Amino acid sequence: MKRTVALLIAILLGIQLSAQITHTDKGAVDQTANTLLKKAAAKMSGTVSFSVTVVNLDADKKETFRHKVDILYNAPRYRVKTSDLEIYCNGKAVWQLNKPNKEVVITPMTDSDDDITNPARLLSNYSKSFRAKFIREESDGTAIVDLQPMKARSYHKIRLFINSKTGLLKKMEQHNFDSSRGVYTLSNFKNTKATDADFTFNTKANPGVEVVDMR
């Protein structure tokens, strides 16, 4: 599965959205965008589960692949599952299981763990790596916020689409410099219960899987 980066955001509830800019020693801060981001992060407090449908488009806007990702999140812990890959993070270590190769690689958790397949974690850390900009609110109540990376990456922005009434993230778009685009649609969002075991890969329950411990 291709690793791409992404981020998400959500909305001001109960007031009209308009761009409010405050200048600081670190540059312009878009207060409206930041408020939306905080609102979205609050929606992902506690333990939540959701699905992300990933569609990558080539430069001609043709679909190159479609992938479904199921995520369980409880800050700073998370679990990501796809057809070929599983990622477990207990807040200290990350287990990445390549199912076709029957191999799991264990690494320490770092602040750079910001794969788009875990938008909840991206949202909680966005201010470290991105500048947020409120774009507009559309007639159907969808708020749009752009995240622009502070350091050079393969893409120039992440565009977020948020339901301005509920505060839930609806969709993310990663806009790449080569004109390709990754589209991430969120669904099946719900509060759920989880145990510590849900965020740790169980090697004993998976005999035959090679373990590569890089901690």
Describe the structure.
It contains two helices and 14 strands. With 215 residues, the chain is mostly beta strands. A hairpin with a 5-residue loop joins strand 10 and strand 11. Helix 1 runs antiparallel to helix 2.
Keywords:
disordered N terminus, 215 residues, two-stranded antiparallel sheet, mainly beta, 2 helices
List the helices and strands and how they pair.
Elements: E1 21-24, E2 27-30, H1 31-43, E3 48-57, E4 63-74, E5 77-81, E6 85-89, E7 93-98, E8 103-108, H2 119-129, E9 130-137, E10 142-149, E11 155-163, E12 169-176, E13 181-191, E14 210-213
Parallel strand pairs: 8-14
Antiparallel strand pairs: 1-2, 3-4, 3-13, 4-5, 5-6, 6-7, 7-8, 9-10, 10-11, 11-12, 12-13
Helix pairs in contact: 1-2
Share of residues in helices: 10-25%
General shape: globular
Reading side by side through the largest sheet, how are the strands ordered?
9-10-11-12-13-3-4-5-6-7-8-14
Work out the radius of gyration. 18 Å
The secondary-structure element order is EEHEEEEEEHEEEEEE
Report how far apart the termini are: 23 Å
Largest sheet: 12 strands, mixed
The portion of residues forming beta strands comes to over 45%
| Helix count from the secondary structure assignment | 2
Quantity of strands, as a count: 14
Global structural class: mainly beta
Low-confidence stretches: 1-27
* Chain-averaged pLDDT: 79
